[in-house]
Structure formats: C-alpha cells, structure tokens
Amino acid sequence: EYENLTLLNNLATAYSHLELWNKAVNCYKKIVEKKPDNYQAWFNLGNIYSKLNKTEQAIECYNEVTKLKPQLHQVWFNLGNIYFKNEEPGLVWNVGRLRFMVDSSQRGLH
Q: Comparing 106 with 2, which gets the higher pLDDT?
C-alpha cells in the first residue's frame, strides 16, 4: 500500500512538471481516496485546480488541508489569493483573520 502511494505521488509530481494536469489530478485523487489524511496530496490537488481556474474544487481541497494541517501557511495564502482573484475582499479578510486565530490558539494567545 505504501509503495503504491509513493508511486502515485511520484507519478503525480512528474505529470505536474510535464503539465499533464488531468493525469496528475487522477493520481492525487487516488492518493486522497486511499489516504484521506494526506494533506500534501490535497494541497497539490488544490494547486492544480487553482492553476486550471477550477475555483470551487481548489477551495474544497484547500479546506481539507486547513483541517488536516492548519499551521501550513501556504494554504491560507492560496485561499486568500483565490478569494482576492475572484474579487471577494471580505473573504480575504476572513481568511486572514481565521489564520491569525489558528496561529493564536496554537500558541495559547487567544
């Protein structure tokens, strides 16, 4: 099982570098089906969807990452960027505020 996931991840990475987005998406989808707590696969899948302007799918993937690894700053940046590009400044502010709250709670600052 682990070897299969590693192979799928390596394939997805190679497909991404070659910009074979559909093949990369299929590999990452298989990874998260087999291991739903793989935040890196969710993150990479979100990145591809974002690159392909599939906003809703990208947001869904990034939201999974925020549940699994809320301290990953890049996912919050990517979410804010999507909302900014879609001219939803209120959501950008909320993402930033939520990110601060997550940071604060992890440090015991709330």
A: 2
